[in-house]
Specification:
The chain has 283 residues and is α/β, with parallel strands linked by helices. The protein has eleven helices and nine strands. The strands form two sheets. It has a six-stranded parallel beta sheet with strand order 1-4-3-2-5-6, with helices on both faces. Helix 3 (71-80) links the parallel strand 3 (46-51) and strand 4 (85-87). The structure holds pantoate.
Length: 283
């Protein structure tokens, strides 16, 4: 496995290949990332992962500075998973000058849910994803890029980006990997104290309960009321919830009318202590 830091070295390593399988990450890897690498690998002729903590997608009060940087351990895990090339640019390699050209996703997908609570987040994500795609896939006839469905809205934004810019890249949405108790694996779980780690599973339980209540309600359920109850239940346990909501899978908008036959996803984001966790369940 080769570890490269510059775009030039990356392109040299990829010379002669025709279909990269790419897994972009911010490092501090867990089994969710490794599952993506393993799933993507057979779909390409070279497997690439990037490790880059992207300043553009963090608000000034967020955890950019404290985000764990664990390159050596990450590289070992990627090598064991069959990754061929790790692209770990320093900030000056990817952003040698301020990134003044940015990708602004349509507000209907990017200003709701995560985008509402983290303004500018999807501009930062879309911009770095576009840049990483251009580093990895430029000159390639095709490719595949894998993203975890724990970041459900991110996968949707990236799919639309690829579609609208007609990029010859297939997007793979990998299933969320969970700990034995049901907590979705996340790099940010490492911030949790032992007590918070025990409590953290309550987010996925709350999503499950909300999904069950929505599906069980007869006729047209009063989703805002069910969502408010779910939010209050989590808040009573000491959480600071941003949202718990039932949405259509197709566009992440609230369903209207009866729910039968509508593919739905329940999404949530909440803080336990100072750590903000997100999760979702397709129901
Ligand atoms: O999901 C992530 O880890 C990041 O948002 C991504 C896609 C690597 C872009 O920085």
């Amino acid at each position: 496995m080769h570890i490269v830091h510059t775009i030039e070295d990356l392109r040299q390593q990829l010379d002669g290949f025709r279909r990269p399988a790419f897994v972009p990450t911010m490092g501090n890897l867990h089994e969710g990332h490794i599952a993506l690498v393993k799933e993507a690998k057979p779909l390409g002729d070279v497997t690439v992962s990037s490790i880059f903590v992207n300043r553009l997608q963090f608000a000034p009060h967020e955890d950019f500075d404290s985000y764990p940087r664990t390159l050596d351990a990450d590289a070992q895990r990627l090598e064991a998973a069959g990754c061929d090339v790790v692209f770990a640019p320093r900030e000056k390699d990817l952003y040698p000058e301020p990134q003044t050209f940015k990708v602004h996703p349509a507000t209907d997908v990017s200003d709701i849910l995560e985008g509402h609570f983290r303004p500018g987040f999807f501009i930062g994500v879309s911009t770095v994803v576009m840049k990483l795609f251009s580093c990895v896939f430029a000159g390639m006839p095709s490719g595949v890029a894998a993203f975890g469905k724990k970041d459900y809205q991110q996968v949707m934004v990236v799919r639309r980006l690829v579609q609208q810019f007609a990029l010859p890249i297939e997007i793979l949405g990998g299933e969320t990997q969970r700990a034995d108790d049901g907590l979705a694996l996340s790099s940010r779980n490492s911030y949790l104290t032992p007590e918070q780690r025990q409590e953290a599973v309550q987010l996925s339980k709350a999503l499950r309960a909300l999904g069950d209540a929505a599906r069980a309600a007869p006729g047209v359920p009063d989703l805002p009321a069910l969502e408010a109850q779910a939010l209050q239940a989590l808040a009573r346990r000491g959480w600071k919830p941003d949202y718990l909501t039932v949405r259509r899978r197709t566009d992440l908008l609230p369903p209207t009318g009866p729910l039968a036959d509508v593919p739905l996803v329940v999404l949530g984001a909440a803080k336990v202590g100072n750590t903000r966790l997100i999760d979702n369940l397709e129901i």
